[in-house]
Design a protein that fits this description.
The chain has 303 residues and is an alpha+beta fold. It has nine helices and four strands; from the N terminus they run H-H-E-H-E-H-E-H-E-H-H-H-H. It has a four-stranded antiparallel β-sheet.
Length: 303
């Protein structure tokens, strides 16, 4: 098979169906960019889980004088010094506890003002309405239930809260967003595949005279199909390259220049994560259209 003939046929086919080729390139680029973005987002969520779950504490909130009517364990009023000493001693005896930090009402009020100081309710909340608490870091964060069962109904304890439950809601939201991106990606992928099939068939129909002559002189089906498959592969490879450009620009301008400079509490994934995805994007952009074109021509060129 002459390489010059194949290359010339590819050029003819791409120029003859320029509009549809452009549509294929754009649709492949968008679908692969969403695919790569979904992979990176999933890696980012897993990285955040590992970082924040490790830092999540179990908080044991103690009764104050305003909790008597609302919590059965606070029926006898605010927590006493003796109860606080006993709770701390029991925590120190537990092998799953890594560290214990006590937070006073003044410290709790300060943290509350830092987080919610711009809300109207913050102006009427006073320090004596806040709860003292023990912030307990566990060696194994999955052992939260051990702390909860031991202290939840103890006199002087208002409630036991695992901060991981709050983080779980955030990560669930990010997971649903990732699924949404994957859904859009699959939709764009279907559109790209349909465009590839239609483009290849239009190209084959417009050159039916040439392919007929080639078949009469003994050319094999594979020899006839190769230029069409190569056309789809080139268009897909261009779309994959454009998707790589979009991912690189997204990492630089969206993540590095915007998000990373304004959100300090999140450790965003770096260039290594992006660069490892680019070969997969290019390989998918090359193989997916080629296989779609092969499937489209399987029966068409037998007619």
């Amino acid at each position: 098979m002459r390489a010059q003939f194949v290359l010339s046929e590819i050029g003819v086919g791409l120029r003859r169906n320029l509009t549809m080729t452009f549509a294929v390139i754009v649709s492949v680029a968008l679908s692969l960019a969403l695919f790569g973005g979904s992979l990176l987002m999933n890696e980012q969520v897993n990285s955040m889980k590992g970082y924040w779950y490790d830092k999540a504490n179990v908080s044991i909130y103690l009764c104050n004088k305003t909790d008597k009517a609302n919590f059965p364990s606070c029926a006898k009023g605010a927590v006493t010094d003796e109860q606080k000493k006993q709770i701390k001693a029991d925590l120190e005896k537990m092998p799953i506890v890594q560290s214990i930090q006590f937070e006073t009402t003044d410290e709790a009020y300060k943290h509350y003002k830092e987080q919610f100081g711009n809300q109207p309710l913050a102006t009427v909340v006073t320090a004596d309405q806040m709860q003292e608490s023990f912030r307990v870091k566990l060696k194994d964060p999955t052992k939260y239930e051990v702390i909860s069962s031991a202290f939840q109904k103890r006199p002087g304890v208002q409630t036991v809260e695992d901060q991981k439950d709050t983080l779980k809601s955030l990560f669930n939201l990010l997971k649903y967003m990732n699924w949404g991106a994957l859904g859009v990606m699959f939709l764009m992928l279907v559109v790209a595949l349909l465009l590839i099939v239609n483009t290849v068939r239009v190209s084959a129909f417009s050159r039916r005279r040439e392919t007929g002559i080639m078949r009469l002189v003994g050319a094999s089906s594979f020899y006839i199909q190769v230029p069409f498959i190569a056309e789809a592969a080139v268009a897909g490879l261009l779309g994959g390259a454009l998707a790589c450009v979009l991912l690189v620009c997204g990492q630089q301008f969206l993540v590095n220049d915007l998000l990373a400079t304004h959100i300090d509490v999140i450790q965003f994934i770096g260039w290594s994560a992006v660069l490892t995805k680019l070969p997969l994007i290019l390989a998918t952009g090359l193989l997916m259209p080629a296989l779609a074109a092969f499937a489209a021509l399987w029966k068409y060129l037998k007619v």
